[in-house]
Amino acid sequence: MTLQQFQAALAAGKGTPTPKFFVIDVAMPGSGTNSGLLQNQKITSDSAQAWFVLQRLMTDQSAGSFRFQIYPDGGQAGYSSTGIGGAANNRIRNECLFGTGSLPFIIGVPMIYPPQGNIVFDIQNLSASPVTAHLVFAGFLFLPDGTS
After folding, report:
1. Structural domain harbouring 76
2. C-alpha distances in angstroms, 67 versus 11, 98, 121, 133, 144?
3. Is 34 helix (H, G, I), strand (E, B) or coil?
4. Were 50 and a residue from 4, 70, 127, 143 both cysteine, which residue would form a disulfide, CB within 3.0 to 4.6 Å?
């Protein structure tokens, strides 16, 4: 199924949506080690047939300050401080991109990932000390009618 076929099925309500959360703890080195940067971190969808529609980003904010950039499946530039498709080195501070469980950051244009697609992101610790960031990617799986 192509992205256009998926979008048509989604718009027409021809399929089954199921809430889905991808949760990951990312251990980041201090800023003195490779500038605290971890590039091309991946979460792979565990569904062989359903598409994942990413709608919200959340964290518990306990990791302190970090910068973040997320990419659509396929590696093209995603959300950055220069907008969608921005430069790869323009990561956004977590305070501006991640909400909390009670007040999540809602992505204005949801990001769509194909079955078994990868959510790819860069994360950069701004603290001198190593920290672990608890990240939540929330949205829904959508299984279009006629797929199994």
Report:
1. 40-133
2. 33, 10, 11, 11, 35
3. helix
4. 143
Determine phi and psi for 4, rounding to 5 degrees.
-65, -40
Give the ranges where 44-110 is alpha helix by DSSP (H): 94-97
Give pTM, 2 decimals.
0.82
Amino acid identity, position 49: Q
Q: Could you count the other beta carbons within 10 Å of the beta carbon of residue 77?
A: 17
What is the number of structural domains in the chain? 1
φ, ψ dihedrals at 34, nearest 5°: 50, 35
In a domain, 23, yes or no: no
Residue 61 Cα distances to 14, 20, 29, 68, 79, angstroms: 37, 21, 17, 13, 20
- CA 18 to CA 26: how far, in whole Å? 25
pLDDT band at 76 (very low <50, low <70, confident <90, very high): low
3, 77, 66: which is closest to 40 by C-alpha? 77
Q: What is the pLDDT of residue 8?
A: 86
